[in-house]
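hey m, so remember when u said the tokens were messed up on ur end? i reran from scratch. heres the input so u can diff it against urs
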Amino acid sequence: MSWLSGEAFTVLGEHVKWADMFGNLLGFAGLALGWRRSVWSWPVQLLSGAVLIAAYLGGHVPGLIGKQLIVIATASWGWAQWRRGRRDSGTIAVRFANWPERIALVVGTAVGTVALALLFTSFPNLSWSPWSDAYIFVGTLAAMVAQARGWLEFWFAWIAVDVVGVPLAFNSGYTFSGLTYSVYFVLVLLGLRSWWLSTREPRVKSATVPQGVTA
């Protein structure tokens, strides 16, 4: 799998590796499937993490590998959540998180970001930009957790990540990555609209009305 670390093409002066290209394509697919509330969103995200790990092996980047392992673990958990939710109700119901859930998500994200940034600061070889890297990574995990729960806050978490990720990529000279994140941002807005409208759809009252993804 060493070819994944090789260069696929050059665009706007940036050398794009095969792993980055496949990772972005899988990311687009995972986001689109999440938009459609398809359970397949999770195995696609899991595969994206596996591809990146294969690319990082032998590159002496334990921090990057460790982050992808956490992403894979979170995707596996989310997959199980959605499979159980669909089995119980026949569909993946979505809703806004209640205030205690929102507070827990925000506080957890803030604490995780600070803790990870301090770790990156203590071990500089793990990240070249400790705080922004920690923010983006923990924000991504928060989005995945919210997605697994079927909360619309999933999309807001992605927006918060992109607000930092897009300008950071451009300012760091990664123009292709910045453009990629910009496309993500558009997909996130469309996905948010789709989920939001689904919460306003009238539901037939019955004893088996879905109440959201099983916790």
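this time it looks ok to me. The radius of gyration is 18 Å. if urs says something different then somethings off w ur setup not the seq
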